[in-house]
Shikimate dehydrogenase (NADP(+)) (Maritalea porphyrae), 278 residues
Amino acid sequence: MKEAFVIGHPIAHSKSPLLHGHWIDTHKIDATYSALDVAPEKLSDFAARLKNGSHVGGNVTVPHKEAIMAFCDQISETAQKIGAVNTLWLQNGKLCGDNTDKYGFLANLDQQLHGWDQQNDCAIVLGAGGAARAILVGLVERGYKTIFVLNRTIERADALCQELNKALNTNALQSKNISQFNILSDHADLVVNTSAVGMGGSKFEGLSLKTLPRTAIVTDIVYTPLETPLLLDAKAQGLRVVDGIGMLLHQAVPGFERWFGLRPTVTEELRQKILGAN
Ligand code: ATR
């Protein structure tokens, strides 16, 4: 039997066991996928057990996504650019790491809005934390010419833009204070919230979607609640919206395929199952 895992600390809230469990059942694979609480000081021991073949691979979540990189023998180019690993597998005794968040973000938009990236001129990304990084790498890859990174703490946006512009060999990323949204938004094709605002129904103060082009897309990676105040506002303005649960579902696909040799699909049934567990 093949065993896979998600490690984090804490980990009880993780939806990954339900998600991978659904695909294991659907495809009748002889496998398990378990949530393991690994404290930061135990990460090194855990990595050693993995290299000894304890599992076929698994997922990594907060707070281990950066720290696990030190134990990997190979890290994909994408994970190096993002600066974090969320998927592990063993190959010829080597511990390999990838980051599938960029894939998950892009695949979700591709599935929900076919051809969404054909304008790819100007995007606004709200937030400059860990979650922003994968999305920014994805937007640069899809050819966005200008990407404004808006953050409450401008120094954090400055540092992130500087680092990623260099790593991606571009100058598309520009840091701005979040208060500048209303004056930057009239040319934006896409708005992505990667910040914690929206969780539990919290709202951005003073942010107006009225000046966005009518063709703009608004998406949020927050999915608790599924319809964040930002998405509800965008909907009320008649804009196209994409909620955050799809990114969670799609980012799981490449890992499952690596561990079990079968590419699963993101279906409406799965989406409803995960939403029902909220
Ligand atoms: P994650 O890995 O989920 O991105 P993080 O690295 O803690 O988590 O980043 C959280 C992001 O949400 C940051 O951009 C943070 O802004 P600051 O850098 O200014 O802290 C943003 N954020 C959290 N609460 C916020 C709030 N009330 N208003 C605006 N931005 C907020």
Remarks:
- The chain is about 35% helix and 20% strand.
- The mean pLDDT is 97.
- Residues 125 and 209 are 14 Å apart (CA to CA).
